[in-house]
Design brief:
mainly beta
Amino acid sequence: QVQLVESGGGLVQAGGSLRLSCAASERTFRTAHMAWFRQAPGKEREFVAFTTWTGGTTSYADSVKGRFTFSIDNAKNTVYLQMNSLKPEDTAAYLCAAKAYSGAYYLNSSYTYWGQGTQVTVSS
């Protein structure tokens, strides 16, 4: 069974930075596509960023483009999301997700495996 463990969330002031980590228990076809979503209380789950393990394909939501960047540590089966210039509206629970090749990368319903989330809170 695939397990995803997120870390790196916390409290940061506006303009600050955080780096989120998502460690996968395995890297196979079942986790070929990795993504971050976020969800604030009372709001729909929102696509944030997508990558393949090679980093050959990445995609970012317009709201974070230019501020958030993926990196990958293949030896640790871990993907990172570097978040810079954080804004209060970035406050949410950030969820790591994984899926096989099928399905649209920007839809949460496409993903098979989910972490439990890491909270990011940005103060103004």
